[in-house]
Every structure is written in structure tokens, then in C-alpha cells.
Amino acid sequence: MAAELPVAWVTGAGGLIGSYIIRQGMTHGSGWKIRPLTRPALDLQDFGAVRNLFAREQPRLVIHCAAITRSPVCEAEPQRAWKLNVDATKVLAELSSEIRFIFFSSDLVFDGRKGNYDESDAPSPLGVYGRTKAAAEAIVLQNPRHIVIRTSLNAGASPAGDRSVNEEMVLAWKSGKAVRLFTDEFRSPIPAEVTARVVWELVSRGAAGLFHVAGVERMSRSQLGELIAQRWPELQPKIEKASLREYQGAPRSPDTTLNCSKVQKLLRFPLPALSDWLQKHPQQEAGF
Q1: Residue range(s) defining the domain that contains residue 123
Q2: Is this prediction's pTM over 0.85?
């Protein structure tokens, strides 16, 4: 009788990156029994329920994608953001002290003053979301078995249809609205499909520590919008270009581009520029 496969939990399974990790796991994570965890299946803010389910299922790998990721929500509800993004991560990391644990963080742990950040750069977050991620990173990295992945804007098709950067733009265009995008705010966008593949490669290689996982292309918000608009000409997409100099609101980081040379040395494929990847993957094939 064949031995049962070890269980891999994926939190945030209904989100963008989590859903791609589950799909990619069918091909790249074939040594695992993947357990998708959505909010209805397990409320991560109910720490007693988390501990009980962990004891019952005894996963050997936890890939923790669940978070409150929208910066305006975090600014408006900092206590709720802290509880899910930090406290729930702490509980999961402690439960996973003897097993593999992967935590998803963000390029927004940086203030964006210099760009091309590598793993040796100290976090300097400007907003609540970035502060919660930096605090959670510090907790996770206390365990030398664990992995923190900092990523940037991810593109793709989420189960809810509204989680990715491209979906937000398309929904606005479908309702006839213009999208206001900054010409001087730079990120390193990456397809969520590629992010998920990186996760499984890191698992297979037994990697640990802090890694930047993003696209190799420095791209402004407005450039990204133009790229996405090219795929939806029938929507007559409208983009209003703006500058951070005119912006009034919660702090925004101007250049949080990531240097990914550390993780690239471990991968069997090159991290792509999003523009090249989209050119090679038509809408139907890419799923968006």
C-alpha cells in the first residue's frame, strides 16, 4: 500500500497567488497533498480553530498567502490588518516551528527612495500594510527553516475576478471609468503563475531564508496600465496619467523595484519581464 502524501496547507487559497500555487502544485508540487484553505474553511483570526485544525491535519508544509493586502483598508483598519497580517502569521509560524513555512511579504516594506532593493536592504515601510509585513517577516525569519518571499505587483486571473492589478483596471474600464496611474511610481510586476512556480522550486530545493521574487522589468504604474490596456482594446480603456508630486493621501513609495539575483541562482528558468511574458502568452493562454 502506497504511503500517504504529506499535507501542504495553502492559506489564502481563494486569492490570486494562493490559487496559482494550488494550480501549479498539480505539476510542480506533485509530492504533496495540497490542502486549500479559504476564509470559509478556516478563519485565521480564530487562533483556537487554527491550532485545532493544525493538530488534526498535521501539515508538513505551510504556504501562507492570506493577508489584508489593500493599503487603503490597512490604513482605515490598522488593528484588523495587524491581527491577520502579523498575529495570525505568528501563530502559524509557531505551529510550523519544526516544518517548512513560507510567508508572502511585499516590496512595500521599503520606502521607495532608491529602488533595486536586494535582501540586504533594511525595511523602511511608509504605510500600515508595509509595517505589518515587515513585522511579520521579522517573526518568520527567526526560524532558520522558514522562507520569506517578497514580491511585487502580481498579474493574473483570480477566482474572485478582482484581486490582481490587471483585474482592477479591467473592472474600472468595463464600467466606463478612467484609471488614474502614476508615471513616477515604479514596481517590478510579475505574472502570478511565475510566482507560484518559484514557490514550488524553492520547496523542491529545500531553500530557506529571505528571497525577492518579482519581474526583471522596472515599470511605472502608467506603463503597466498601457500594457494591460493593449489586451482589452474593445473596452476603449482610458488612462489618466498623474504624478506622485500631485498626490495627496496615505504615503506611497515611489520606487520599490526588487533585485532578484539571489533567487535567480536557485531557479531552473529565468524570471521574466512582464511585457515579454505577455507577448509570449496570448490572453486565452495566460488566463487574462
Answers
A1: 7-156+190-216+257-277
A2: yes
Q: Which three cell numbers stand for residue 116?
A: 533595486
Considering the domain boundaries, does residue 12 fall inside one? Answer: yes
Residue partners of 64: CB distance under 8 A and separation at least 6: 11, 12, 89, 92, 101, 102, 103, 104
What own/partner pairs with CB < 8 Å and gap ≥ 24 does 170-177 have? 170/228, 170/232, 170/235, 173/229, 173/232, 173/235, 173/236, 173/237, 173/238, 174/235, 177/238
Domain count of the fold of the chain: 1
Q: Which residues pair with 105 in a beta bridge?
A: 150
pLDDT tens digit sequence for 238-267: 999 999 998 888 889 999 999 999 999 999
Asked whether residue 204 is assigned to any structural domain, the reply reads yes
- If residue 179 lies in a helix (H) or strand (E), which one and from where to where? strand 178-182
